[in-house]
Each structure stands twice: as structure tokens, then as C-alpha cells.
Design goal:
five-stranded mixed beta sheet, single chain, 140 residues, 4 helices, 28% helix, alpha+beta, 5 strands, Aminopeptidase
């Protein structure tokens, strides 16, 4: 990574939807094959965070929330070419610090391999009572 100016923004107009769709549907294990329509609908109904290096989008996160009691952090990624420079840490910290996400009763996420990142920089811990949580599986 060159000495680029990094910025994290929730300005929806700056989101590069083509890039986000391509990265999610081709690079992210949880979203392989996700359609463009589904990506667009998810962006329209979430608080989105773009990560930019000199105006070029290089990362993303979105939060599904009611802004009062609940939030789900999901679809978090940093472009492979920009990893290893603490950008994931900065992104998680920006999400957690966002003024509209303060005081929520539940703020959750799911991860296969980034537990330490979310614990250290977001304050996330394993569910206190996982036996209380349920999920409705998608039927194929």
C-alpha cells in the first residue's frame, strides 16, 4: 500500500456498488454468488460504511439496525491488496463509535475467522446465553 489518504465514510453516494457486489459475490465466503439485486436491497436498508484510499473504495461494512435496541454488523471486508495496515481495526472502531449506534441493547455479528479483531477493537464477546438465540434457516 502506498501512502494513501484513508477515509471511512457513511455517505451513501460514495459507495461503489459494482465493487461491493463483485467483492462480496466473488471474494467473501459468506456471500459467494450473492446477486446484484440482493446487494442493492441490503445497502438500501442498512447503515453502510465505505473505506476509501484516495477516493477509491477499498473496504466496506454494513450494519442492519433499528437505531434503538439492536444492530447486526455484517459484510465486513478490506480489499486483499490493502490488508495488513490496520484498516480492519479502523473500520470496526469507526462502526462502534458511530453516534447513531450508541446505547443499543444488542450489537451482534458472526465470523468464522476474525474473532480477535472484533474482540480487541469492537469489544465483542461470545454470546452470554447462546441457548436463548435462535435462527430460522433459509430453505433452498
Amino acid at each position: 500500500m502506498t501512502t494513501s489518504m484513508i477515509e471511512i465514510s457513511t455517505d451513501r453516494a460514495r459507495l461503489d456498488i459494482d465493487y461491493i457486489h463483485r467483492y462480496l459475490s466473488e471474494e467473501c465466503y459468506w456471500a459467494i454468488g450473492r446477486s446484484r439485486d440482493v446487494v442493492e436491497k441490503s445497502l438500501a436498508n442498512s447503515l453502510c460504511f465505505g473505506v476509501y484510499a484516495d477516493e477509491r473504495q477499498i473496504g466496506f461494512a454494513r450494519v442492519v439496525t433499528d437505531y434503538a435496541t439492536f444492530a447486526w454488523l455484517c459484510d465486513v471486508f478490506i480489499d486483499m491488496a490493502y490488508r495488513g495496515h490496520d484498516l480492519g481495526k479502523q473500520l470496526v472502531e469507526a462502526v462502534i463509535a458511530h453516534p447513531e449506534l450508541q446505547g443499543l441493547r444488542n450489537f451482534i455479528l458472526a465470523t468464522r475467522d476474525a474473532h480477535e479483531l472484533y474482540r480487541r477493537y469492537g469489544g465483542f464477546e461470545p454470546l452470554a446465553a447462546p441457548d436463548r438465540w435462535m435462527a430460522r434457516p433459509r430453505k433452498e
